[in-house]
Design a protein that fits this description.
- The protein starts with 5 loop residues before the first helix and ends in an 11-residue tail after the last helix.
- It is built from 2 helices and no strands.
- Helices cover 46% and strands 0% of the residues.
- It is globular, with a radius of gyration of 11 Å.
- The relative contact order is 0.23.
- With 57 residues, the chain is mainly alpha-helical.
């Protein structure tokens, strides 16, 4: 995970979970019994493959 603060992490996870729930492609190999979009987004964030960036001023 990159150097995001807790608010940025929450926003990224929620945005990615919404994308996954709307049938966006999953970017990692998931366990066979994992269907929860939030957990899948967490796994993607752990492996640092989420295609979302934060712009800071």
């Amino acid at each position: 995970m990159s150097d995001y603060n807790k608010f940025e992490r929450a926003r990224i996870l929620s945005a990615r979970a919404l994308q996954i729930s709307m049938d966006a492609p999953i970017l990692i190999k998931t366990p066979k019994n994992e269907f929860n979009p939030i957990n899948i987004a967490r796994l993607e964030m752990k492996e640092d493959v989420i295609p979302i960036t934060i712009k800071r001023d």
